[in-house]
Design brief:
- The complex is a heterodimer of chains A (377) and B (398).
- Chain A has 3 domains: 112 residues, Butyryl-Coa Dehydrogenase, subunit A, domain 1; 95 residues, Butyryl-CoA Dehydrogenase, subunit A, domain 2; 146 residues, Butyryl-CoA Dehydrogenase, subunit A, domain 3 (Up-down Bundle).
- Chain A contains 11 helices and 9 strands.
- Chain B is an alpha+beta fold and 398 residues long.
- Chain B is 46% helix and 14% strand.
- The longest helix of chain B is centred in the C-terminal third of the chain and has 29 residues.
- Classes of the chains: A alpha+beta (377), B alpha+beta (398).
- At the A-B interface, α8, α9 and α11 of A face α9, α10 and α12 of B.
- Chain A: InterPro entries: Acyl-CoA_Oxase/DH_mid-dom, Acyl-CoA_Oxase/DH_mid-dom_sf, AcylCo_DH-like_C, AcylCo_DH/oxidase_C, AcylCoA_DH/ox_N, AcylCoA_DH/ox_N_sf, AcylCoA_DH/oxidase_NM_dom_sf.
- Chain A: This is Pimeloyl-CoA dehydrogenase small subunit.
- Chain A: Keywords: FAD, Flavoprotein, Oxidoreductase.
């Protein structure tokens, strides 16, 4: 039992904190918000040089063999700066799906490209009718003489327009879920790209008779749902760490503001009602920190324990995040609802966090169901 | 980083389990399950203390030269977790966890030699004299006076909310030995024999139907100056040291998990008509379980910091706040789980010595009293409002 950082982990945290605080200024964020890509390819290259893109990839495939703890360290720093590079899509989810599902040839081909920064990935899984049920996929994959034909609609595909390859989930004729590599610009693929709440970009996809070669299918054709669940659990652990960085930034800024802002001849922070609110915010930041760490520590546990930890963390951190975000705006008064402060950007990123992969109610239900307490919706 | 215990620690875990299996009698276990108040009655608690003492485990947190077992923080964690899981009785916390560390830290050699072995063996039973009718949250305003008269102090005044004063043969108290400008500077820490002439105890019944707390009156009570711990006027410092222990040293998540399991088992049983099938109940069960996971993780982070000699920081207030709130959430859920059986009132105490068959299944008897008594969790040891003041000051630097 040891929850202290190793020397390497401490160095990683220091370099990530330094990089983010030097690079992700408010000016940078404003500039990138108008960018059609939603992030900087130059910074992505630097991520590769720093080894961050190789972090969770096995050493056999050109990676560093790191785990969820290291990802969490990076993501927390990313949260502080509202980093919009497609790290979650490419490195956390993409590399996880390829590592879990891919054939050896696919791993040899794709994983080194993730590590060196030449391949950006997106994961197209969510569908409107499914809400957040990972097993509900209507997109179909029909076997053709040459390979596959995909038809369906996908929503909220993070970083879809920036991706060289999109990993699309689809159900084949015998009812199994498969993951298919769809290259950017494939015929029959229509993308509606939009700026994403809280920074970065996403798109909705229409797949209409998209023709793919046989080897576009990741792996050997066994059902991909367990791999999808594992990847999403890891994504939620990573997002939890990112949320912690965002919440801590909001707390720090709000604390500072209540010390400076004077009304009735004294700082806001002299009022007990404000002090207690800040105490609750600090407490919820700390609780979120505990749960993000717990989800990371359980990321490679057996599936039920892993998923319960991930859902518990997502539910708990989601609640804490909403509270800290809303109170940060509240304690900044009217300034809190303007675009003139950074508060609103952090607020919106936390709202996006709470929504991604399902909100607190969904994950408390999943947590209960996995614990043998079935809850009828 | 990892969450698992090493082979040595797992072997220790087995040793604790074996010890509990061999020493926790069915009577003790049943009595503990049927105790709705915070503390076990002394006949139950002290029997367990004696068993622990025989094994050399009478005071887990004490240094080895005073009879502590010299455990690592991880071993203490394992011990507390196993005790909670097995449902062992509460020992005399006021002795082992409160006054013991103060005597070890600030007492004279004579005090250490006299009192510490008697705490370990269970010969002495302690109560805590802090709050007064006019001094609750504002503890430093306390007025119980100790006036010097030769080699004695003469004590006059009253203490209130004194848990188990009616069982205790000793009290540690904060008393005013001086009128000073800063009222904290006039307070001393003193050890009192409860059999001394001039001490009377009045029971206070609480809303759960239990007699746990009392008011204690001091009428010209003579206490030797030699019973003062440390320096005159330094009592506030010693008392605060103790309160940090009271708030933070407990490893609370394991007990909360055990309490939730009790309610969860009831909810899944036909006795409650399978309350768990109510989606609201099932959802709240998960919310509380996640809150306990969160508290446990925070406790483990503190433990890990302690293991490596780091200072965990001012987290004891955070832990106290969450522990007390989660405890109340568990007991509130319990009342909802048992439904109509919550209307049944059983006035006899202790519940485990009830002579007649109760009108509802026995295991349901403590549920409502636990909820009612549990309202005190966010009040004693510094109310939640005081804890938030402390967090604002110590954690946020306000």
């Amino acid at each position: 039992m040891d929850l202290t950082l190793s020397d390497e982990q401490r160095l990683l945290r220091e370099s990530a904190d330094r990089f983010v605080s030097e690079t992700y200024t408010a000016d940078h964020r404003r500039k990138i918000a108008g960018d059609p890509l939603g992030f900087s390819t130059n910074i992505w290259k630097q991520f590769a040089d720093l080894g961050w893109l190789a972090l969770p990839i096995s050493e056999a495939h050109g990676g560093l063999g790191g785990g969820a703890i290291e990802i969490g360290i990076l993501m927390e720093a990313f949260g502080r700066g509202l980093v919009s590079e497609p790290y979650l899509s490419t490195v956390v989810i993409g590399a996880s799906l390829i590592s879990e599902c891919g054939t050896e040839a696919q791993k040899q081909d794709l994983l080194p490209k993730i590590a060196d920064g030449s391949l950006v990935l997106a994961f197209a899984h969510s569908e409107r009718q499914a809400r957040f049920d990972l097993a509900k996929v209507a997109t179909s994959a029909k076997k053709t003489p040459d390979g596959w034909r995909l038809d369906g609609h996908k929503t909220a595909v993070l970083d879809g327009s920036a991706a060289g390859q999109i990993i699309v989930s689809a159900r084949n004729d015998d009812g199994k879920l498969g993951l298919f590599l769809v290259p950017r610009g494939a015929a029959g693929l229509t993308s509606r790209d939009f700026p994403r709440l809280g920074g970065g970009r996403a798109c909705n996809l229409d797949l209409s008779g998209v023709q793919l070669p046989a080897d576009a299918l990741l792996g050997d054709g066994s059902d991909a749902l367990p791999a999808i669940e594992a990847a999403v659990d890891r994504a939620m652990a990573a997002l939890g760490a990112e949320a912690v960085g965002i919440m801590q930034t909001l707390l720090d800024q709000t604390l500072e503001y209540t010390k400076i802002r004077k009304q009735f001849g004294r700082p806001l922070s002299a009022n007990q009602v404000i002090r207690h609110r800040l105490a609750d915010m600090a407490m919820q930041c700390d609780e979120a920190r505990s749960m993000a760490l717990r989800a990371a520590l359980m990321a490679d546990a057996e599936p039920v324990a892993r998923s319960r930890a991930a859902s518990g963390a997502k539910a708990k951190i989601g609640r804490c995040a909403r509270f800290v975000a809303e109170q940060s705006v509240q304690l900044h008064g009217a300034m809190g609802v303007t675009e003139e402060l950074d508060i609103g950007s952090y607020f919106k990123r936390l709202l996006a966090f709470d929504t991604l992969f399902g909100g607190s109610a969904h994950h408390y239900r999943r947590h209960a169901a996995l614990g043998g307490r079935a809850i009828q919706a | 980083m990892d969450l698992t215990f090493n082979a040595e620690e797992r072997a220790f875990e087995k040793e604790v389990r074996d010890f509990i299996a061999a020493n926790l009698t069915p009577e003790m276990k049943r009595a503990t399950a049927l105790t709705p108040s915070v503390f076990s009655d002394p006949d139950i608690g002290m029997a367990w203390q004696r068993a622990l003492h025989r094994k050399g485990w009478g005071a887990p947190g004490w240094p080895v030269d005073h009879g502590g077992p010299d455990w690592t923080p991880a071993q203490r964690w394992i011990f507390e977790a196993e005790c909670a899981r097995a449902g062992v009785p509460n020992v005399n916390v006021m002795g082992v966890k409160m006054v013991g560390p103060v005597i070890i830290g600030f007492g004279s050699p004579e005090q250490k030699n006299f009192y510490l072995p008697r705490i370990l063996s269970g010969e002495d039973y302690w109560c805590q004299g802090y709050s007064e009718p006019g001094s609750g949250s504002d503890l430093a305003s306390l007025k119980t006076r100790a006036v010097r008269d030769g080699d004695d102090y003469i004590i006059n005044g009253t203490k209130i909310w004194t848990t188990h004063a009616h069982h205790a043969n000793r009290m540690f108290a904060l008393v005013r030995t001086n009128e000073t400008e800063r009222q904290q500077d006039g307070i001393s820490f003193i050890l009192i024999d409860m059999k001394t002439t001039g001490i009377t105890t009045r029971p206070i019944l609480t809303i759960g139907g239990d007699h746990e707390v009392n008011q204690v009156f001091f009428d010209d009570v003579r206490v030797p100056v030699a019973n003062r711990v440390g320096e005159e006027g330094k009592g506030w410092t010693y008392g605060k040291y103790l309160l940090e222990f009271e708030r933070g040293a407990g490893i609370a998540s394991a007990k909360l998990r055990d309490a939730l399991k009790t309610i969860s088992d009831l909810a899944e049983s036909e006795v409650t008509g399978r309350a768990i099938d109510d989606p609201d109940i099932a959802m709240r069960m998960s919310e509380i379980e996640v809150d306990i996971d969160t508290l446990e993780m925070t406790e483990l982070r503190v433990l890990s910091a302690l293991q490596t000699g780091q200072n965990p920081g001012a987290v004891s207030s955070l832990l106290k706040l969450r522990n007390s709130e989660i405890r109340q959430a568990v007991t509130r859920l319990g009342v909802d789980v048992i439904g109509n059986d919550g209307l049944y009132v059983e006035p006899v105490r202790p519940l485990y010595r009830l002579n007649e068959t109760p009108g509802i299944p026995e295991e349901l008897l403590p549920v409502v009293p636990e909820y009612l008594n549990g309202r005190a969790y966010t009040i004693f040891g510094g109310s939640s409002e005081i804890q938030r003041d402390i967090v604002a000051k110590m954690v946020l630097g306000l």
